[in-house]
Fold each of these.
Amino acid sequence: MNRHIFAFQQVARRTISSSVRRQVDNKVPQKQKLFQEDNGMPIHLKGGTGDAVLYRTTMALTVLGTGYVVYELVKAAFPQKRD
């Protein structure tokens, strides 16, 4: 039992310590340039199509949710009479 645990520890230690670091390009200056340029777009839409879809979905859910809340409040304010 102990032999299996020791072997597992060795494998875990070997994979962590011998992993090769990948070179990652620094994309921060490109993103800064994109978000700081003055092109008349709001900052929350400068990220592209995904941001636009997320914004429109959020706005639609907000409007629908507000409408539903108002409907439920009106329904609660004027309860139906039972026969």
Amino acid sequence: MKMMQLMTAWNPKPIQRWKPCSRMSITNEGLPNSNGFLIIEANGGLNQQRLSICDAVAVAGLLNATLVIPIFHLNSVWQDSSKFGDIFDEDFFIPALHNYVNVVRELPGEILEQFDNNISSIVNLRVKGWSSPTYYLEKVLPKMIRMRAVRIAPFSNRLAHDVPSYVQRLRCLANFEALRFADPIRTLAEKMVERMIKNSSQSEGKYVSVHLRFEMDMVAFSCCEYDGGDEEKREMDVARERGWRGKFRRRGRVIRPGVNRMDGKCPLTPLEIGMMLRGMGFDNTTSVYIAAGKIYYEAKYMAPLRQMFPRLETKDTLATPEELAVFKGHASRLAALDYTVCLHSEVFVTTQGGNFPHFLVGHRRHMYGGHAKTIMPDKRKLALLFDSPNIRWESFKQQMQDMLHHSDSKGFQLKKPSASLYTFPMPDCMCKQMEGGNEDNNSTQLK
């Protein structure tokens, strides 16, 4: 099946389309006087930081607080010292929110003096994960009013998924409108998208992107085994100890790679991804972009995937060494390049979960009328198929076609109360629009 034919495989036939509509009505009175300053520390990688930022905007709006540009914590795995302005466009972020939430670059001097000019002296409130708006109003707000500034570190996953609609809209505004990448990232990412489109001329500029989680840290964390024998085991033990300091050596901890594989918890290898895509109908004319960090034994594991898909690109082949030089050593900035190229692909393939696809799938739904062409493999089924010695190619292909159509059915989904709007932006961040272009009176209107 050619790429052109495959494009028609996605046919959700929506009764209506959805359009972004996260703006709220603005009153002439402007924002009320601030109750104090909110300082948060965004930990983790690029998209975990993104989660913290958007939730912080929502909490600041809830508390009528002034948000200080988030502090980025140096993560032991990512090892990226980038600050907010190195990754996101600070000059765009602040005015984009000014009618909804006050944001300042740093704590005013008179407030900082109160704490001996040391942010670390500001009380750090240990907020539990997934805390409700009521908790913030009853426990955090009084302390903020009394002390004029509070700090929450770390802040990741500190706000519940299910919150009132006006709080959700602030999350929508922050994620889909206020947050954009800094100029150097945006400039190079746009060039990379243009080059990917040009390289995909045989498929009208459309390409497939794959989030390949086969870096050493992911392979080590998964506790899965591949074909590296004793040497691989030694490397993985060292990597686990370096990244997670004894977590995997605790008493009673049993590592069972075979069980992990059957449970669908092992990262797919490049070869397995290639076989899956071929089975789904992508042929060797398909342009493929691989979003990844440093692949574990790249020369060895990537060779079969490159053979199956000669039109394969990565950021290292799509951008010049000179263009990438300023990003080297900054994993979050490099991830931002991957994020942008994946965002504009015809099809996105997610292979291991995590915050990258969590945000990207939702962002693509938001961009493409509510339906994202996303392949979400059933890794339990894949493990059984790959380990079956007698399976025939025709049977494997049929299974892959079924998996493709199942993914298609999941491309359009409304948010459930317990789910994240960053993955499911409808109906909180989007309005329903009937085929004729009129908004449905029964849709969720963001007023």
Amino acid sequence: MATPYKPKNILITGAAGFIASHVTIRMIKNYPDYKIVVLDKLDYCSNLKNLLPVCLSPNFKFVKGDIASPDLVNFLLLTENIDTIMHFAAQTHVDNSFGNSFEFTMNNVYGTHVLLEACKVTGQTRRFIHVSTDEVYGETDADAVVGNHEAAQLLPTNPYSATKAGAEMLVMAYGRSYGLPVITTRGNNVYGPNQFPEKLIPKLILLAMRGKPLPIYGDGSNVRSFLYCDDVAEAFEVILHQGEVGHVYNIGTKRERTVLDVAKDVCKYFNLESEKAIQFVVDRPFNDKRYFLDDAKLKSLGWVEPTPWQEGLRKTIEWYVANPDFWGDVSGALVPHPRTSMVPNYGGSDEIKEILSKFTIYNQANAVVAQTSEDASQMQGFKFPKVKSEFCYVE
């Protein structure tokens, strides 16, 4: 077995989002000798409160900014001496991609391209872990007994998965053309505490808590595989240290269930009659029937999936019951077919600063730093695209 990889300074993009926040917390707590710098523009489905458990950690630094800003990304790689990138930042909700697909191209494709180009220019990256999705494989046959292997053809069926596949092609190209040490992951659905309620499980939970109908697309026969967030965070920990450069790893489970079965399980917890509580609604323009992954490659590195479905669902429901207002007004996300325009952006500047006041060494004087492209582009003789950015920098 190859010597485990040991990073020093990690940049985690999208770290105030759902999956990345769980990974960030795990890495900060388990590896106090790693410096963790997180970059997030705080889009509608991100929340600084996700990072409060580690906000006082000495090895943690938060930067509010956009991966689509080349000057900011290059500035961070150089000033923080970043040797490892874990790239989670993306637009991920399929429904939104049918309504505003250009935003997905900008975030998922262009944003990834900015990061890759910065790695090429600075020449100091030892690992670039690109987080993709099982949806790039497209729909799995209903009768398939073997899941999609990492070498399977990519056949995305919606704008979201198409942009993730496009980003993967850039990652692969930079690995081959410039020798960047890239690793790609493709994961099944993830659920657990802190997830924004546009996604199936938190949406059903919050609607059940409010006594509202639980909307199910089509007839609910679509099959999905769900992984608990802590198990996925552990998978990324394993891939970071044990993953082989140039390889793709599926993060999957063979424990499948239909969307209708998920809704029925939520009903059972709240003692609801599923026949009355569940409401079948118009399906999305195209809804893949099944995603099924071959997870043998990751398991060969020592990863296991310890959390049973019923336990993970119970923990998730208990968290939402205890934190019903965590996301504020999410009524626009709880409709059957939400769009980004229906969901208010998370927090204003005052709310963000109030939460940041809990982060270490934060005060009004150093809260917002205007970093112009002219300043960043002159660093060490590097020439970066001149894109003005303003970001919040906390250490």
Amino acid sequence: MKRSAAGDREKEDKKRKLLQQLGDVPLEFLSPKDNGFHQLWSSKYAKLVLQEADRTPVELHRAVQKAFLTLLHHGCFFQDLVQLKGKDLLTPVSRILIGEPGCTYKYLNTRLFAVPWTEEDLGISYNAEDISNACKAFYALNKFLHLQTIRELSKLVRSKHLTDHPGDLQEQVSSHGDVGQEDASSFNVTLINYMNPQTMTYLKEEPYFGMGKMAVSWHHDENLVEGSTVAVYNCSYKDAMNTLEEEAEDASKWRVGLKIAWDIETPGLALPLNSGDSYFMLDNLNTTHQHCVLAGSLPRFSSTHRVAECSSGTFTYIQTRCEKALENLCALPDSDKTKLQSLEVEMLQQAEEIHNEVEFDWLRQFWFQGTRYSRCSDYWLLAMAKLEEHWRQMETMVSFKNTSLFIFWMWVLNGYRNTLCMPFTR
């Protein structure tokens, strides 16, 4: 899903009109202490599922919570510089992306580069053994949340709430039971968040319902496979004692807020989260609804597992694109020089498009913010070195193209037909 200036303006117009319509009267929202909360949840927010902490194995809790603290200890959480409403802003939440080797995730015009997780020995080098173990812990959590997602989706099929999941998942689940659909809604990245509200001088108030202070404003998650689930593991952290623990009162807990997008008739929902709880935004809920994160009193980690739309967002993809462009570059025999094999306009344009894609969508994005991930692993430094070499070769191709066009027009103007026979070498 690509953001556009027109889309941002339309969203802001909708928000402004909605706030004008509301005036000083907030919309209604329900939390567990309110009558009708569970009825509202089951009728209007059925695709939001909460799994309490005791549903997750104790050893997995320990591994994941140790992994959070490991990343924090090594300084692996970073605020992102993003584009929002035409402005460059630092996110209040600090983040790191972990996922399948070579995966990236793009949001608010910023590309994040996943620190690789893997069970296999792929020769990936990490800066410390405990960072490697942390990545393995999130890989294990990812597999667990995937299986829980399949179970919850199968329940939706039986309850007839699941209507439009891609890949004929309804038929798959009906035919094969609750689990085993490894290719359905398989998360390829997790965006791990950390925020300490005690260090924040200012947090925005939730504008529609009066729900309280927001750590993350109302939004749909971007750049996901359409209709895919988002699974979130929540964990509170008591900084002073260096221990992870649960808040005592609902008023101090972190909450996830949900509302139907641009609907002022249906009450919103504010769901308190205990440390170790997981929640799932199943099927197309991320599209039909918006969600926000309401700040609690303690610092908080979350691991948000997603099916990132990676058709043009993996290292394999961009490397293949480079190889396609470089097919038109060949070495001259008995020489260190190269030449273009073809001067066809389409091939020249394709090479220039790929050259620009590598530079602006990958290299500049990485050297601007992506080098931070070298604190964890050298995976992307090595990958970018390969892309830089491809870029340099394509830079040569672009110069060949410009030289070729100059010679062609000189031939047209002066009538020197033999000019076309000149070798274009470098």
